[in-house]
Amino acid sequence: MNRTPRRNRLAKPLPEEWRRFMVEQGVPKRKYTAVCQVTLTTGRVVEELIIEEGWIISLDKAGLAGKFEQRIDFDPRTITSIEIRQVI
Prior knowledge:
Blueprint: E1 12-13, H1 16-24, E2 33-40, E3 45-52, E4 55-58, E5 79-87
Antiparallel strand pairs: 1-4, 2-3, 2-5, 3-4
């Protein structure tokens, strides 16, 4: 299988329930990048979360270009809501 490695090796997988939610909202299953606002169980809001092909790769739009390393500082299982802002 010829697979391109994730652009952020510290990326975290989006939980399956949220992957299904995004598909239900019209986001393709593969080959997409989405800018989303997410709310966590703690009440924290991440305004520009970048999700690429089912992986959380960045906490802001700086993650839209090139390879980089950024720690995702929360557990994706604590996401309580996702608002899709843009799909690229």
